Amino acid sequence: MDTADDRIAAAPLPSARTLRRRRSIPLQLFRFGRINLRMLRMVRKAH
Amino acid sequence: MARVVILGAGISGHTAALHLRRLLGKGHEVVVVSPNADWNWIPSNIWVGVGRMSPKQVTFPLAPVYRRQGIEFRQARAVAIWPEGDGDSGQPAVDIVATLPGRSGEQNRLGYDYLINATGPKLNFAATPGLGPDGNSLSVCTPGHAEQAARALDGVIEKLRAGQRQTLVIGVGHGMCTCEGAAFEYTFNVEHELRSRGLRDLADVIYLSNEYELGDFGVGGMVFQQQGFISSSQMWTESLFRERGVKAILRAHVERVEPGKIYYETLDGSRGALAFDFAMLLPPFRGADLKAYDRAGTDITADLFAPSGFLKVDADYTPKPAGQWRAEDWPETYQSPRYANVFGIGIAFAPPHAISKPRTSPNGTVIAPAPPRTGMPSAVMGRQVARSISDMIRHGAAKPTHTASMAAMGAACIASAGAGFRHGTAAAMTMYPVVPDFARFPVHGRSLKDTSGEIGLAAHWVKHLLHFVFIYKAKARPGWAFLPE
Q1: Partner residue facing B242 (CB), from A9, A19, A32
Q2: What pLDDT shows up at residue B264?
Q3: What is the CA radius of gyration of chain A?
Q4: How deeply is B68 buried, as exposed, middle or buried, from its count of CB atoms within 10 A (0-12, 13-18, 19+)?
Q5: What is the mean pLDDT of residues B440-465?
Q6: What pairs with residue B114 in β-bridges?
């Protein structure tokens, strides 16, 4: 059985591009809107 | 005139109180009994725990809000329920003990027509010897605990600056804990603070959890459809651990915490010890210590409450193996099956079983996350139960008119992984339904369309926004009722 640390060591690492995208203000502003829309969808399903 | 008494002023109890006041009008009484003077936006306690926020930023006094809304507030702790009344009167009642400074210890019997038990959890540090702020580890469950954790973290930072290597262990302090998400958040916020100070290389950050695999979060993990692939919260979480250099010990039950050392058992039956300089371990929860008596004074606590101390509601509590769990096991109305005017919501209701598969070590130790029922689902339960009670009082409805099953509702969860407007990050997750329903979604138990996860700065902004929105709503500021739970 693999230990948790074995699995972590084999997990995919985000590329430099992915890390940049996660902090890119214009892209994250778009994501901000998208996350809020997804949350509103959950709100609709929760009520 | 009817009187509705709500025990607890957390997310579910406070939501129920505000909606009941709005729905019932002035002809009926709404009374809130809470031992705490303040309301606390608990999801932001992790930021208090790293010194990013003060306790005042995550709390506000309840009394002025309730005064403005026309809700009676008793700062007291409920100790016993008399659902049939007592020998003198057939009026159902609850015994409360004042916690208000100056009146502390005064006991009263408060009559009710409807009762909502929303006491939240008792933080059961006693389940693990040495666990908790009065023992040898820290907590972020309350603003006070979190402030204490922040001071301890400052001490660690000073030692790191002095070039001393430090081991920080963050996780859960018992095999049957819940709230792994909060432990995850605190782990990555601490890691972020150390990294941002240039001290990360000297620190070992270890996540210690009862989860079977990373990304379980007490909900059995999640499956996402992303970029043409079906991926899991396990892979996604393991990737974050690798990226941030955080180690993990999983499938663990903490047996005891001694000064500087944690002793634990893992699911394979082996035992280990882990030395630490800083340990934040969340406690297991149990129900508040409430007793119940019938009119003759006979103790009926075991009839109303599960052995865990949580209130039994309209769930199917028949013991069954995980393979036979059904969505219908989960409660819909949160009404007590024994007393139609008693409800249990938020953490205070007894779940029928776990969501994650329960497992037992060869030594007989149960090591499995308990089901989370905080945040959005808690607030939705508060609102729906308020609507049902309002319909029962105002329109004579014979039974609850609104439902809020966790097996039929979606939830959004934002797990912070580091604070900061430009450099913060968080994981934004949505899932539908919260409790997997394999009858409706045979392959994964949840809708792939509505179950999602992503990491980034935007999710941190959302979490920060929610902090302000929900405190605004809880203060019952103009338009609060239009803001969703």
Answers
A1: A9
A2: 98
A3: 17
A4: exposed
A5: 94
A6: B4
- Percentage of chain B surpassing pLDDT 70? 100
Element (H, E) at B279: strand B278-282
Please state whether B83 falls in left (phi above 0), alpha (psi between -120 and 50) or beta: alpha
Sign of the Cα pseudo-torsion (B60, B61, B65, B70, in order): positive
The domain limits of chain A are 14-46
Q: With an 8 Å Cβ cutoff, is A45 touching chain B?
A: yes
- In chain A, the residue whose alpha carbon lies closest to the alpha carbon of B455 is A22
Residue-wise pLDDT tens digits, A1-47: 578 999 999 999 999 999 999 999 999 999 999 999 988 888 877 66
State the Cα–Cα distance between residues B85 and B87, nearest whole angstrom: 7
Cα separations in angstroms, B1 against B92, B113, B167: 15, 9, 59
Predicted local distance difference test score (pLDDT) of residue B226: 83
What topology does CATH give the domain B3-123+285-394? FAD/NAD(P)-binding domain (3.50.50)
* DSSP E strand stretches across B182-260: 203-208, 223-226, 229-232, 247-249, 252-258
Give the model's confidence band at B386: pLDDT under 50 very low, under 70 low, under 90 confident, else very high: very high
Strand, helix or coil for residue B251:
coil
Which site among B229, B235, B238, B378 would you substitute to test the A interface, given the most A Cβ atoms closer than 10 Å to its Cβ?
Answer: B238
Q: Where is A42: in which H helix or E strand?
A: helix A25-46
**B248 in contact with A, Cβ within 8 Å:** yes
- The pLDDT score that the predictor gives to residue B93 is 98
Phi, psi at residue B145, to the nearest 5°? -60, -45
- Pick the closest to residue B350 from B406, B397, B395 (CA basis): B406
Cα four-point dihedral sign B150, B151, B152, B153: positive
For B454-468, what is the mean pLDDT? 95
End-to-end CA distance of chain A: 43
Q: Which of B12, B237, B430 to mutate to test the interface with A (most CBs of A within 10 A)?
A: B430
Q: What is the pLDDT of residues B114-132, one digit of tens each?
A: 999 999 999 999 999 999 9
Mean pLDDT of B211-240: 93
Global pTM value: 0.95
Going by pLDDT thresholds of 50, 70 and 90, the confidence category of residue B82 is: very high
Write down the domain spans for chain B: 3-123+285-394
Determine, for residues B242 and A22 on separate chains, whether the beta-carbon distance falls below 8 Å. no
Of the candidates B368, B353, B417, B374, which has an alpha carbon nearest to the alpha carbon of residue B218? B368
